[in-house]
Amino acid sequence: EAQRVKLAKTAHLAQSRGEVVPPGFNAHLGLLYLNTGQLDKAQGAFQAEATLFPESKPYMDFLLRKFATQNLGDAR
């Protein structure tokens, strides 16, 4: 949880300064959000990673599909 909070603050600070976080930053943050049950924020972080770094899009799409499948399984 402490790591997630720290990364989220860093992302917010970078965004407010017009800076871009390094590749993998949002993906890692997204996984931390998943670990803490914040599914909507995880999805947003994965989408941000894919937008900032198009080469990561196939993997982010994989994670988003996996997230959606797990979410549907949990709803049943």
SSE pattern = HHHH
Percent helix: over 70%
Please, what is the average pLDDT? 89
What's the tally of helices? Answer: 4
Unreliable segments of 5+ consecutive residues: none
Count the beta strands: 0
Assembly type of the shown chains? single chain
Strand content: under 5%
**Span between N and C termini?**
28 Å
Q: Biggest β-sheet: count, sense, barrel? A: none
The SS-based structural class is: mainly alpha
Q: What is Rg?
A: 13 Å
Principal-axis shape equals: flat
Description:
This protein has 76 residues and is mainly alpha-helical. 78% of the residues lie in helices and 0% in strands. The protein contains four helices and no strands. α1 crosses α2 and α2 (25-35) packs antiparallel against α3. The longest helix has 19 residues, at 57-75. The chain is flat. The mean pLDDT is 89.
Question: Any chance you could write out the topology, listing elements then pairs?
Answer:
Blueprint: H1 2-16, H2 25-35, H3 39-52, H4 57-75
Helix pairs in contact: 1-2, 2-3, 3-4
